[in-house]
Amino acid sequence: MPAKGGSDQTMEDAPAWGIEPVPPRLRVLGLLDQALLWSNLGVSLLVLVAGTYLVPALSLPEAFLAIALGGLIGNAMLGAAAMIGADARVPAMVLMRVPLGQRGSWLPTVLNAAQCVGWAIFELLIIATAVAALSDELFGFRAQWLWTLVFGAVALALALLGPIGFVRKFVRKFAVWAVLASLVYLTWWALDGAGFRSLWEQEGEGGSSVLDGIDLVVAITVSWIPLAADYTRFARDRASAFWGTAGGYFLAGTWLWLLGAILFFSRDVTDPAALPLAVAAGGIGAILALVAVTVDETDEAFANAYSAAVSLQNLAPRLPQRLLVVVVSGVATAGALTIDLLSYESFLLMLGSFFVPLFGVLLADWIAAGLHYRAQEIFAGPAVRWGMVTAWIAGFALYQRLHPVGPSWWTDAIGAGVDLGVGATLPSFVVSLALGLAVATLGRRRF
User: Fold this and answer.
1) What string of DSSP letters covers 49-79?
2) Over the stretch 262-307, which tens digit does the pLDDT of each residue have?
3) Is 46 left (phi over 0), alpha (psi -120 to 50) or beta?
């Protein structure tokens, strides 16, 4: 009997697997596969540029400390989300049916689909802009619209492969080797002749703290939480999902954060937006390395397009997944050609502030369920669990009170944030986790 939202597919048909729990025969991604997948997703031009935001306010030792601690905290959270996904074997937004209820999961589903489409547009813009700048430097033409179409098509092709095909046909055979060689070269180029000791001893200018840096690293890392289960549902077991996801993303993400901070000092990059061109000025080797990292950025667009489609299946399980992938990829490509995403970025940040407390609620409910979800709990629960919805919204409200993000009309209405010196990510997570545990303990089935 074909499964609702799935079918009696063979492993080759796994890209179209829907919302039903992934069967044992398709749980084929082991520890190495998960590590390669998440390390590949961790290699991002966006993270490389983000590393420049930590300095010169922080010294290099302070930035390194913030990156290490933020990476450990953020990846522990990401690994836990990955483990829950491997346990339940369903997509991330379908998981939300348990803590929030069947219909209660619709709101985060809509929010996640919207942010995935938005970030897919953002990634295609980053890729096309960087490649257009390089082609202009090397060949005298930009043709950004052409590069947008090319990489939009690449993202679509990767998304149609699905997680299993993506790892086995793209990451294992090409991406991991090209990106590793590129990062090694860029690291050597960043340090060559820079006098690392002098960079290390240079004092920070102030204006930001290590705790602020930790919050930034955590915030960017946990932005993957709403997507994690979409991929780890194909993991062989919970341990490989946790360690592969947390370890793979930590290694790659930490490398990129550190490299960005070092490049700021060693190559005199005073504007983060100028980083790609600064690298391009380093000669043919640096250009080729940057091209490889930039092309690899396409996997970010792939992940957002695939997860948007899978999320939408929580609302409409019988819609063909591949059709949704094509539609989402087309919308993202059209958006990258037409939208000024700088005006939309604030809205994406506001959407992101929903998902840290949402994970707190999910983790609390999973703990209360004995660290295991049964299919009946996922597909036959109440319509809405209002207590858990309240815990989620309370965490979101705290996040916005501490660090208002969003369109100007929204932040103006909220007013200035309250600076506790620890950012907004961890407090909102802790509050939603504590409230969720309280609600689940008092009566998990009554809310």
Assistant:
1) HHGGGSTTTS-HHHHHHHHHHHHHHHHHHHH
2) 888 887 766 655 666 677 677 777 777 777 777 777 888 999 999 9
3) alpha
DSSP state letter for 160: H
The percent of residues in the chain predicted with pLDDT above 90, rounded, is: 54
Cα–Cα distance between 11 and 233 in angstroms, integer? 14
Here the tokens at position 436 are 């969720």
Q: Report d(CA 162, CA 302) in Å as an integer.
A: 9
What pLDDT, on a 0 to 100 scale, did the predictor assign at position 276? Answer: 66
The pair of structure tokens assigned to 441 is 């303990």
Yes or no: say if 58 and 217 are a contact pair by the CB < 8 Å rule. Answer: no
Phi, psi torsion values for 29, nearest 5 degrees: -90, 110
How far is 79 from 81, CA to CA, in rounded Å? 5
Tell whether omega for the bond before 56 is within 30 degrees of 0, i.e. cis.
yes
Strand boundaries in 319-417, DSSP class E:
none
Task: State the Cα–Cα distance between residues 304 and 119, nearest whole angstrom.
Answer: 7
**How many angstroms separate the CA atoms of 328 and 398, rounded?**
32
Measured CA to CA, the distance from residue 286 to residue 264 in angstroms comes to 15
